[in-house]
Amino acid sequence: MRLEIVDLHVSIDSREIIRGLNLAVESGEVHAIMGPNGSGKSTLAYTLLGHPRYTVSRGDIRLDGESILDLSTDERARKGLFLGFQYPVEISGVSFSNFLRNAYNIMNKSYQDKSREVFLTVREFHDYMKRQIDVVGLDGSFLARYLNEGFSGGEKKRSEVLQMLVLKPRFAILDEPDSGLDIDAVKAVANAINNFISKDTSVMVITHYARILRYLKKLDYVHVMANGRVVRSGGKELAEMLEEKGYGWIEKEVKDD
């Protein structure tokens, strides 16, 4: 899969947030998006999945060369896009395991991928989920709980990456999967990402800090967003520089431009 963002301009409530963003992610690559508050990172995540509040006024988003701007959120998900939310919503009455089983079966019908496992019984799928839940360090009883209801902040973050592991999307976007987590939870989330990374999947990690990136087994690019566009790209060393110097120098460079 190749995701290509071309001269993207995005507004919310008539206020432009993203101003000419260009980015390309190839299959098998891991990209980090960093930047100060208000730079457009979460706006980018929501726009990629087609959130109706965000309006694309110019530019394009392409999967394997085809525009997805006219596709609904569920159609984009069926094509392999996944978003791990920064603030997951609670859904009472829907058990975590039933939600994941239904979602997985829908994805299997959408993908033309014979390597995806087919589970004929609830027990088979439960055993599959149990293997994944062990990766993120959650108890098996977690699966019977209602989706995100009563979850702690750390459980919600682990829940999002657990969904990624179970559903096996082609392209995962994780919006601040490390925010508000202690060091053990950060390691657990990073471990889940490492288990997901393969030559056939791509990952975009949106974060303020370098610490989760240090635990990733693979990181191809770090991009810095400011004023609604990518202003600097590099490798892990760029993330460490931001950790040391903050974002003030980046914002100053953008202002000077």
From TrEMBL:
InterPro entries: AAA+_ATPase (IPR003593), ABC_transporter-like_ATP-bd (IPR003439), FeS-cluster_ATPase_SufC (IPR010230), P-loop_NTPase (IPR027417). Keywords: ATP-binding, Nucleotide-binding. It holds the Pfam family ABC_tran. Residues 3-252 form the ABC transporter domain. SUPFAM superfamilies: P-loop containing nucleoside triphosphate hydrolases. Transmembrane segments: none annotated. It comes from the Archaea. This is Component of SufBCD complex, ATP-binding component of ABC superfamily. NCBIfam families: sufC. SMART domains: AAA. It comes from Candidatus Nitrosocaldus cavascurensis. One of its GO terms (molecular function) is ATP binding.
